[in-house]
Amino acid sequence: IPLENYRNFIIVAHIDHGKSTLSDRLLEITGVVNPHAKNSQVLDKLDVEKERGITVKAQTVSMIYHYRGEDYLLHLVDSPGHVDFRLEVSRSYASCQGAILLVDAAEGAKAQTVANFYLAYSMDLKLIPVINKIDLDTADIPRVEEQIENMFELPKDDIVHLSAKTGKNVKYLLPKIIESIPPPLNCQRDAPFRAQIVDSWYDSYLGVILLINIVDGTVQKGSKISSYRTKNKFEVKEVGIMYPDRTPFPKLVAGQVAYIIPGLKNPNDVYVGDTLYDSNFSVEPLEGFEEPKPMVFVGAFPTQGTNFKKMEESLNNLFLNDRSVTFQRATSVALGQGWRLGFLGSLHASIFKERLQKEYGEDLIITAPTVPYKIHYKDGVEQIVSNPDDFPDSLEKTKISYFSEPYVDAYMSFPKEYVGKVMQLCNANRGAQEDIQYSPTGMVFLTYSIPTAQLIDDFFGKLKGVTKGYASLDYEDAGYKPSDIYKLEILVNGEGIDALSTVLHKSEINRNAKEFVQRFKKFMRIQQFEVVMQAKANGRIVARETIHARRKDVLAKLHAADISRKKKLLARQKEGKKLLKSRGQVRIPPQAYQAFLRRQ
Ligand code: GTP
């Protein structure tokens, strides 16, 4: 098949607008899958994806379509819809020349459609607008058409109306793809081999499998190729296309998005976005390599009696298929040895938190999520701190100039009657309004800049709460902004407890401090002596709770008149307590931390 007959495209859609259903229909029409075998949703493969019904990893599937006497090779590249996976998303988009903008006929475009539209548009992809679910009684096609025309500036006449579920009109889509999306003509088949790794996954039998976008040349079994990033050389064991599963092919050529098996056993040897090239030549790397940047961190600590080594091995295996999770050892005075895990965003973190809890249950304590904060020193040095315990106690005026925290641009869409409540919520979360648009479908599209820390504090849950579940949310990393943030530390009889520190904005310190000490108090058993729980921020005590001692009645057996003896005993008891206190011998049972952290 000549390069002119290749088409690489992606489907851009909001969750549940029918991306997977439409993909299945396209695969049926092109004979890749049998319409009678109910193996629906070929593209979503990972277990996490199945459980959550969302796509986390990039996938691709190839189709051959016969049109006007010629064969066309189509690559449908599927990418995560969620912006936590922005790097994966943009890499998938980069391997395509066109995108189907899929909108639900009843719901109209929503937050995720908008965010992904901007990305596709900025990458110069040819857009084909499609209205899906025209079979629904609630479909309001004229209004959705108007919305597509207004918001995306795409002509009404170009819109394809179809029902992915019933299959109606789907057959008109493939000719449209062939006619309007350009082939990947920037590729050179005669040049030395060069490709970008779009995704990688791990098979316990075959080892690492790579999904690659071949930009130049050809590759086949036995080809000797190198990684630009690691300089490792390897011999290709197998090449093929996803049709819909791995189907070996004698040779892959420029313009294809396909898989290769490099014969690597260690997934850590592979970097998504890296350039692969013919070992006999030296080449320029392809653009688009970026290290995944974790934006949400949690601590994970095994409870007493759990085998640390074994758990570490097991966690390592869990993360083999998701290289974007960062994983480091960490030690806490309170909780012992454990790990600090980094995730790309809050959705990513919550997926894994759920998995970890399912898999390890009571054996693993997971601390509250935090974002990476930045410390700006006066000498211009910047330091990123992802563990609140490492955050300075106060602004050391001599060295530190200021702190900053990460922000996102949050795109929200919801029916217009909720606009007041949503703005209130955003303002309460330290947001700043950036844009508002009213759509003919009765929806409002609102953009706010809000701190990532607020976003990961169940912002979506709260947003759904104030809109009776009607809101949708998407967001994009918007860099760091200076912020008045402090470490809030919990002290028990004057000693800090490391695993309980948090970093908070000035405006939230007092309320949180009070709540924190009150809550922690409940988990402490009454001791022989007085226990003082304090919350400290910026060098000051901001909240305090006292747990009174259980007084041992040393006087019980004394006669009422024996005053001097009484005084002596009481004095001795007081001394003893002082001694205990000064030694800081407050016994905090690990269960107290665990119970406290589980409640967060
Ligand atoms: P994610 O994988 O979560 O991103 O969702 P998706 O966009 O892939 O949506 P999916 O294809 O899973 O469809 C979501 C729901 O809409 C399913 O219950 C489909 O059966 C339904 N659906 C898809 N297309 C149509 C359609 O044309 N008409 C009707 N009535 N329902 C449809």
Automatic annotation (TrEMBL):
Superkingdom: Eukaryota
Name listed for the protein in its UniProt record: DEBR0S4_15456g1_1
NCBIfam families hit by this protein: lepA (TIGR01393), small_GTP (TIGR00231)
Binding residues annotated for GTP, in chain numbering: A13, H14, I15, D16, H17, G18, K19, S20, N132, K133, I134, D135
PANTHER family linked: TRANSLATION FACTOR GUF1, MITOCHONDRIAL, TRANSLATION FACTOR GUF1-RELATED
Domain Tr-type G as annotated: residue spans: 4-185
Species for this entry: Dekkera bruxellensis
Main function: Promotes mitochondrial protein synthesis. May act as a fidelity factor of the translation reaction, by catalyzing a one-codon backward translocation of tRNAs on improperly translocated ribosomes. Binds to mitochondrial ribosomes in a GTP-dependent manner.
Alphabetical UniProt keywords: GTP-binding, Hydrolase, Membrane, Mitochondrion, Mitochondrion inner membrane, Nucleotide-binding, Protein biosynthesis
Gene3D superfamilies per the UniProt record, alphabetical: 3.30.70.240, Elongation factor 4, C-terminal domain (3.30.70.2570), Elongation Factor G (Translational Gtpase), domain 3 (3.30.70.870), P-loop containing nucleotide triphosphate hydrolases (3.40.50.300), Translation factors (2.40.30.10)
InterPro entries: EF-4, EFG_III/V, EFG_V-like, EFTu-like_2, G_TR_CS, LepA_C_sf, LepA_CTD, LepA_IV
GO cellular component terms, A-Z: mitochondrial inner membrane; mitochondrial matrix
Catalytic activity from the UniProt record: GTP + H2O = GDP + phosphate + H(+)
Family label: Belongs to the GTP-binding elongation factor family. LepA subfamily.
Topology in the lipid bilayer: Peripheral membrane protein
Any GO BP: translation
SUPFAM superfamilies per the UniProt record, alphabetical: EF-G C-terminal domain-like, P-loop containing nucleoside triphosphate hydrolases, Translation proteins
Cellular localization per UniProt: Mitochondrion inner membrane
GO MF term list: GTP binding; GTPase activity; mitochondrial ribosome binding
